[in-house]
Amino acid sequence: MPKKVDHEQRRRQIAEAVWRIASGRGLEDVTLRQVAAEAGVSTRLVQYYFGSRDALLLGALELLSLDQKQRVEERIPKDASPRLLLREILIGLLPLDEHQRMTLLVQLAYFIRALNDEALAAAFIDPEDQSLENLFIEIMTAARAQGQIADGLDLAREADTLLAVSTGVGPDILVGLKTGDQVIAMIDYHLDRIFLSSE
Amino acid sequence: MPKKVDHEQRRRQIAEAVWRIASGRGLEDVTLRQVAAEAGVSTRLVQYYFGSRDALLLGALELLSLDQKQRVEERIPKDASPRLLLREILIGLLPLDEHQRMTLLVQLAYFIRALNDEALAAAFIDPEDQSLENLFIEIMTAARAQGQIADGLDLAREADTLLAVSTGVGPDILVGLKTGDQVIAMIDYHLDRIFLSSE
């Protein structure tokens, strides 16, 4: 079905134009006309694929969220230890490469609008964080059963902390207040507290 | 000098209109005309007090940063223990009241633009975080000298963690994924790790 593939590629090409504009200049400049120019297509084509500006904003965000999910999943090594598994997911959330940097910027650009727009909020808040939190608790609970976790820890709070460290420093990395190495050292500091072994 | 006071009040009245629009709908709607309407003054008056849209954006952000600094400082209790001091500052950074909520939203609205605008970046990134980090390290170092800190902690990393927890969960509070009580419990969890006494 070459026609179908072509449609998907075209939608992605337009969505990528939205991402570039939103991450570089904010939503302010995401208009049908400017997106069309950035994507190198006509405004009519953008309308054909997405409809209104609202639908374009939503569609581009949905594609980005899907992308990020896949990227984090691809980073997870097979047969990794619980500690390494957590570490890879956490590092995967940091804006250390161009794509993750852009993803965080697009999310920041959309944030306020999503607070007042249920459809955007669903594509956004969509409990990715919650499910990561639960995944982290599961991983650490399994590691505890194997005697790998330090005594006296509240695993739900530790999961929250790991996520807060990873997401809380994102903007600091973007503005250059922290380097990726500094943040990874911070993640390791907490993994050292949580796990009895360094492997 | 009643004239001077009046000028400052007028600037603040206009800045507050910028904050309300930016926190509610993003920078997209912060135009001279919409700000004038929101402030209940003429577009000419906005121009008289701030000049261009760029200067208005900058001036409103500077006033907000000043405000936030004062509010955090006012929260700090006199003769507080090191632990209570940290706790009050950290809670003061959370979007738990209407003003802190608005402050965080305005900062999010400005973020991408500040990455590409040195004047905005200076009003923004202006090393408030860095200085808070250093203040936290100082407070904990003094507490350590008095035997109040648990063994084996890297105080710079702990300072980073406390700040990351506080800033990292801000958006989660705004979207309702976390309550203020949950986040305060998380802050206390870390203060319990760091401080030997609960006072």
Summary, kept brief:
By secondary structure, chain A is mainly α. Chain A has helices at residues 2-25, 32-39, 43-50, 53-75, 82-92, 98-115, 118-124, 128-145, 155-168, 170-174, 180-194. The radius of gyration of chain A is 19 Å and the shape is elongated.
Describe this structure as you would to a colleague.
The structure is a homodimer of 199-residue chains. By secondary structure, chain A is an all-alpha fold. Chain A has a single domain (2-194), classed as Tetracycline Repressor, domain 2. The first copy, chain A, contains eleven helices and no strands. In chain A, α1 packs across α4 and α2 crosses α3 (43-50). The longest helix of chain A has 24 residues, at 2-25. The mean pLDDT of chain A is 90.
User: SS-based structural class of chain A?
Assistant: mainly alpha
Q: Would you state the CATH class of chain A?
A: Mainly Alpha
CATH superfamily of chain A: Tetracycline Repressor, domain 2
Number of helices of chain A: 11
Beta content of chain A comes to under 5%
Biggest interface reads: A-B, 41 and 41 residues
What is the helix fraction of residues of chain A, given as a range?
Answer: over 70%
Whole-angstrom Rg of chain A:
19 Å
How many discrete structural domains of chain A? 1
Q: Quote the CATH topology of chain A.
A: Tetracycline Repressor, domain 2
Profile the largest sheet of chain A: none
Domain HTH tetR-type (chains A, B): 8-68
Pfam family, one (chains A, B): TetR_C_6
GO molecular function, one term (chains A, B): DNA-binding transcription factor activity
DNA-binding region (chains A, B): 31-50
